[in-house]
């Protein structure tokens, strides 16, 4: 927890905790609203795709744009816009004026805002802690907050949906963005030097870095593969909750919460890691564990094994995503960090979007359990292939990292 010794990071940390909890409440409520209104698993995939695709398309350009401006002020503005989006969704739902077209449109708007929000949050964490050696711990704690929300938010959303409505969940999320805006407003840091040159020049510099540096491009490739396969489970969970386990919104909350619990434990594990080369095995191992979890969950109809399988999936995805982020940010030069983070974010969430769309369409065609099985088999095959990368990637991390050291045992 050493990063919490920094005052600025504490303000960010606690504001982020409230904001993330609200976001997970909205995500679960929106999934339930879609399936309750339409009964369409394909629409679940389309909505997830619509909310995440802008991150894939706009994300890299957003990284170049934010590197040319004051990131702290931009982050506060974006929180206000996100709050407005959630409030609008709440009002439309309360008025029974929401339908598939409006849901997809609101999802696209959320995706556009998130394309700026995610790199803005991530790229400033280094300045909030002030010491480069505390950056990996700060990134792990930031991910821990996200996954704690992922663990607590879905069961809370299930409870709120049972007692109130989707509209109330959306309104709670709208209010939660104010906590992060307040925390960031209290932070006092020297603005980072802004990137000079045109948007095209700044973007090209970042693109050249992530496509020519071997460890950077391979880590992003692993990230893309894990998220296009394993992360698509989220699109299928409402169908499993209602059709396979014959449950309601509370069942969905339990399944999603189990994945969140595993993800939270994954970030607790990473917060104890101080040696970067050892994270290469963590990344590859996370892909393998996610594959096992998907395969176990696919045709299981008993709740306890299903919850354990979801926890394994959450743990595997979390350690893979967060460890890749820790490695990328620790190796990236300071002046390129915003752009590297934007490529990380666009890959992480963009390929999640593509995977969610494919999973939804595949489930509509062959059934939700068969679709989950296919995802697990593809990821398992990739894991076997990726084992060959461990040696060279570890050597590259040792050579390029400022904190090169022997790998964790």
TrEMBL record:
GO molecular function, one term: transmembrane transporter activity
Regions crossing the membrane: 12-35, 41-66, 73-92, 98-116, 218-241, 253-272, 279-301, 307-328, 340-364, 370-390
The Major facilitator superfamily (MFS) profile domain, residue ranges: 3-394
CDD domains: MFS_MefA_like
Membrane topology summary: Multi-pass membrane protein
Keyword line: Cell membrane, Membrane, Transmembrane, Transmembrane helix, Transport
UniProt xrefs under SUPFAM superfamilies: MFS general substrate transporter (SSF103473)
Compartments reported by the entry: Cell membrane
Gene Ontology CC annotations of this record: plasma membrane
Domain of life: Bacteria
Primary residence: membrane
PANTHER family: INTEGRAL MEMBRANE EFFLUX PROTEIN-RELATED, STAPHYLOFERRIN A TRANSPORTER
Official protein name in the record: MFS transporter
Organism listed in the record: Parazoarcus communis SWub3 = DSM 12120
């Amino acid at each position: 927890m050493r990063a919490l010794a920094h005052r600025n990071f504490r303000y960010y940390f606690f504001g982020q905790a409230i904001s993330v909890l609200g976001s997970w409440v909205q995500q679960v409520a929106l999934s339930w609203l879609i399936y309750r209104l339409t009964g369409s698993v394909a629409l679940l995939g389309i909505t997830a795709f619509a909310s995440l695709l802008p991150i894939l398309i706009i994300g890299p350009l957003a990284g170049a744009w934010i590197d040319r401006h004051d990131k702290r002020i931009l982050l506060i503005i974006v929180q206000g816009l996100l709050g407005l989006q959630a409030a609008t969704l709440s009002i439309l739902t309360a008025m029974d004026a929401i339908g598939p077209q409006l849901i997809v449109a609101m999802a696209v708007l959320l995706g556009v805002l998130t394309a700026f929000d995610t790199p803005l949050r991530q790229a400033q964490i280094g300045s909030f802690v002030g010491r480069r050696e505390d950056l990996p711990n700060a990134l792990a704690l930031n991910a821990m907050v996200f996954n704690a929300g992922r663990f607590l938010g879905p069961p809370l959303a299930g409870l709120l949906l049972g007692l109130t409505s989707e509209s109330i969940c959306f309104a709670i999320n709208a209010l939660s963005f104010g906590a992060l805006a307040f925390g960031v407003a209290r932070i006092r840091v020297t603005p980072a030097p802004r990137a000079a040159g045109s948007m095209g020049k700044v973007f090209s510099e970042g693109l050249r870095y992530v496509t020519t540096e071997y460890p950077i491009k391979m880590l992003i490739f692993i990230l893309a593969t894990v998220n296009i396969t394993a992360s698509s489970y989220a699109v299928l969970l409402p169908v499993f909750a209602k059709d396979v386990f014959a449950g309601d919104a509370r069942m969905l909350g339990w399944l999603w919460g189990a994945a969140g619990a595993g993800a939270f434990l994954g970030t607790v594990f990473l917060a104890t890691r101080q040696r970067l080369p050892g994270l290469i095995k963590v990344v590859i191992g996370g892909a393998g564990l996610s594959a096992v979890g998907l395969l176990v969950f696919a045709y299981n109809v008993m709740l306890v094994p299903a919850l354990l399988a979801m926890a394994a999936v959450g743990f595997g995805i979390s350690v893979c995503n967060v460890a890749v982020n820790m490695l990328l940010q620790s190796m990236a030069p300071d002046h390129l960090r915003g752009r590297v983070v934007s490529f990380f974010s666009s890959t992480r969430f963009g390929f999640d979007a593509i995977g969610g769309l494919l999973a939804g369409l595949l489930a509509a065609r062959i059934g939700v359990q068969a679709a989950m099985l296919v995802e697990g088999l593809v990821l398992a095959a990739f894991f076997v292939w990726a084992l060959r990368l461990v040696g060279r990637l570890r050597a590259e991390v040792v050579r390029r990292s400022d904190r090169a050291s022997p790998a964790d045992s």
